[in-house]
Amino acid sequence: MNILRLIRGGPPASRRFIFVITGLSGLGNAGLVGLINQAAEQSLLGQEISLQLLIVYLLTLAFFLVSNRTSLQHANRFVQARLEATRRRVVSKIRKVDLRTLERMGEGDVYLTVAQETDHLSQTLPLIIGAAQSAVLLLSLLAYVAVLSLVSFAVVTAFLALGIMVFLNRQKALTGYLTEVHVHEAGLIDNLSHFTLGFQEIRLNADKNDALFAHFSERTGELKEVVLRDGARWVTLLQFSNAFILLLVGVVVFVLPIFFGGYTDTIYKIMAVSVFAVGPMAAVTSVIRLIGRAEAGLGHVFDLERRLDEGLPAKTGKSPRENSPFRSFSSIELTKATFRYVDSEGMITFTAGPLNFSLNRGEIVFMTGGNGSGKSTVLKMLCGLYVPDSGLLTCDGVEIRKENRQEFREIFSAIFTDFHLFDRPFGLEHVEQEEVERLIERMELSDKVGFEKGRFTTRDLSTGQRKRLAMILCMLEDREVYIFDEWAADQDSHFRDVFYREMLPDFKARGKTVLAVTHDDRYWDCCDRRVSLDLGTIVPTGAA
Ligand SMILES: Nc1ncnc2c1ncn2[C@@H]1O[C@H](COP(=O)(O)OP(=O)(O)OP(=O)(O)O)[C@@H](O)[C@H]1O
To answer: Where exactly are the transmembrane stretches of this chain (predicted)?
Structure first.
């Protein structure tokens, strides 16, 4: 069970404490029932109820309330800590996973699982804990029945075991149906993102807007149907559970007397127990659906984690940048390297390579080629973001493998076409204010952006300006190799000139290596070497 798997990971001392205190609270509850039975017996026999019994009853009640409260509070704290640790662990895996593994996972699935499922679990698990406590109370009542009469205990236990078996069997199947709901929900989130990310496009085109809405309506309708189907199955199970409670009371009232010849007060005591048990039993059955939902939710979290584990790199030292032996590299080489994109049906949709390419320290290399010729793919292969399917990536003759890949990546700073602009220079917390201000001025952004309290004052900029801000971050990182994927394409003619005629020579003077994808043939004289790609392979070019 996934819930048990979650709990097993916690500190054993906390688990033991919760186990003991919950058991004590159950005993307290059984003690209360025993005392009530004793008082009822004294009344029936016409005796006066002793003050001593009342005091013991009140003390037991106080004990029960305190232990019950402590148990619930600790269990809740324990579960929330386990969830927080799980969330942290999964996100930590996401940040380290191989790029292709993450690209293959749908964004909707990742968000739904990490954000929504764990949030849902943090709300439902406390309710389940309450029900688990009720289950412990029921166990203690069962123990009390055993003290009263072993035959009754055997009959009730056999009946309970039968009910639990049927219930668990059905519940397992229903948890599977919830996976179907999750898949539909993830699809809906992906669909929903088109409304926000593609807002400009749909506001310019009413037909597109309507068609997207129609598609969304279809998906949300499908989700409703799946949820309804699933809900109907849960109603059946809930009904079974409620009927089961009444059947159990029926067994106590109608079946147990068969085992007791003549009058005995034991049967009345057991009936009193069954009346006390109805509340906790209802508490347990009322969370049936939540248990199923939590099981399925945790199942998705653990499944996402398993898929992430498959794309996780080998562990690296504490600071791969500090420890990187590649910072003093002389050349990086791809030898007969290939990389294939494979779709969800296993079909190869594009192959880059086999190609041979080398990048030498201090060089400025331009990469050209038509759209879809594989330039970005080759860049990602060269900096270790994509792992070649065949052939080699080497740095000064050292093969880049799982063990050293992160240390190798640390020599690169890149601005890809689909770059993400962070709102602060993460990883550069100790950067000098003056240095950032100098770069903002150099990038001619002083009238738009400031740098205050360790973050840029705005990211609401034009595309070209956002790229300049990304360039500032790149320069602050001060790494050995810069990769620019059509960086200049969104710059005005003045700043394009600044990039090619001032910044690139400046990088070269500082010993940096630059690999830039460009279509600006006016500036081809600004590089040391030019390579051209076509259909994923390198084709001969003229001089730089
Ligand atoms: N994440 C991806 N998943 C699957 N296929 C991809 C992915 N990225 C690119 N491709 C495929 O790989 C091919 C090469 O894409 P790539 O982005 O490397 O080309 P490019 O030369 O950089 O193009 P452009 O000049 O348009 O940016 C494309 O035809 C595309 O179909």
So the answer is: 17-37, 49-67, 125-144, 150-168, 243-264, 270-291
